[in-house]
Amino acid sequence: MANINSQLPTDLVSVGHITGAYGVQGWVRVHPYSADASALLHAKTWWLGKPEGNVRSRSDALIDVNDIEKLEAKRHGEDIVARFVGVVGRDAAEALKGSVVQIRRSHFPALDDGEFYWLDLIGLTVENLQGESLGVVEDLIDNGAHPILRVVSVNQAPQESDGDKAREYLIPFVEQFVPNVDQQSKKITVDWGLDY
To answer: Is-above-0.90 flag for pTM?
Structure first.
């Protein structure tokens, strides 16, 4: 591994974390942050960093980020197992436990029309069909059947019963409720009322 903190690519995305060693030959077990781990499986180079404090997914909260060349990676249940150049034996693999795995955004596979990477939806503004602003996509939740947009209002006055809490909307990310996503204008149009 080469320490390249000063030369990190600007498009790194956290895609998983190492949960420990796998076997005795230097393999590691990786828990991917997405059910579709194709980007993780196909990227030749990964960047590993230790989280600062308890933060796992924020790229800016990683310290000692290093690049590492992946030799091989494959699915193992819901996880990925991988081995790297220079990581030999269980002790070397175990030393990587807790590392966040990042890859370049430019290495993600191309998507078909109507498909989106969740990270590209976070931060987009959300308006309903009446042109009313619901807020900004804060997160997505996978409920098994379909993703759910978690939208948090940004400039709506809190209701008396809510105290100082911002209003939150949980909107199923399906065509019936989300007829349009315009990444160029950073806006999602939803069929959803302010009072839902």
So the answer is: no
